[in-house]
Request: fold
Amino acid sequence: MSAPSNRRSIFLGRMSLPERNYLADALRAETVGGILLLAAAVAALIWANTLGGSYEAVRGFHLGPSAVGLDLSVQHWAANGLLAVFFFVAGIELKRELVAGELRDPRAAALPVIAAICGMVMPAVVYFAVNSLGGGSLQGWAVPTATDIAFALAVLAVIGTSLPAALRAFLLTLAVVDDLFAILIIAVFFTSTINFLALGLSVAGLVLFYLLLRKGVRGWYVYVPLAVVIWGLMENSGVHATIAGVAMGLMLRCTRREGETSSPGEHIEHLVRPLSAGFAVPLFALFSAGVSLSGGAVHDVFTRPETLGVVLGLVVGKTLGIFGGTWCTARFTKAQLNPDLKWPDVFAVAALAGIGFTVSLLIGELAFSENPVLTDEIKASVLIGSLLAAVFAGILLKVRNAKYKALCEDEERDEDQDGIPDIYELDKPEFHLRMAAIHEAKAAEHRRLAELASGTHAEDDDPA
Reply:
């Protein structure tokens, strides 16, 4: 029997090629969506602070069939309807990470899971401490616990930092786990009275959705109407309707069978992600981020305990929670940091995770729904806290930008132009043979030059 291995595992190391390719495609869509999200947030702020009356009139306009309980405002449709698409994609991402990604191996999953949990607990602790000392409301403890991956990647795109794939994977996995716990928080703490009939019918619809998938039934015309019915029943049940989205996402198969180039989950995610990142989330931001940012409002953000707790939770709590959880995991387990990266890199990514835009705005609306004035102040604190986290992380990342570019160039180098980065061909026999031939040719050339320099090189016979 072999002895147990004491070898320390490397975290934030090189990913497998399929994981790297999937990550590149996912982050490319999220980055574009994040830039649109930034644009929508800026547009909402300009609209609300210049033509506030029309902004309130548009987002407060009601539409939808009242007979089935769906006569909702535009803002409500954006928060509960469009974000269901966002959480549907989050459910697929989570399922894929659990069966084929970073979370499939419990030992590998421990690091991002612990980091994400610490990154949600610490902001809540900071918020709780600030409001306990300042006499504020504790209802908003969950607001600073969320991370917005699209907004974070948009910041990276704007400041031009090329994070290595391992750091981007760490950030994405953190956000996936973060989304899971945010969904649980919404389901457990922000569900009021429950309509058990509507909830039961919604669950029945989910069961039917699952059975159709397992039977291999195909066709969007089957699943899209069923998904809309499930969402409508969940909306009427009292449970937040976005839960229906993540439940359906988790049901999709994300493992490939023989002969498949992509699993159903990957295929559907590829189709729906642009809708989520490019339309659903920016439109939600347009009708949720519009708050008055007068001098008095900004002053209130830093003096009122509820809003100050959100800002400090995002900027301080997120950074310390994620970095502390990561460091403790590496310190007390066999995990070891990739030697190409340093702890300041992890600290910068932890600071970047303090950008808590989309889900933080949603939780802020749910937590203070009975106090519209405080809701707007909480939204302002989310915007300011996310901006401060972005600036802080951007400065930290810029310091190491040259190192990141060198690592990315190594990851992308493809000298033989076969579409596979050379670093992933190190284990191929033909790669070793090719490299050995190159080295032998170089050695022979060096020997020839040395012989010429010493005058011992044999001359050709004189035919005369």
User: Anything to note?
Assistant: The chain has two domains: 9-191+240-412, 422-452. Residues 345 and 399 are 10 Å apart (CA to CA). The domain at 9-191+240-412 is CATH 1.20.1530.10 (Na+/H+ antiporter like fold).
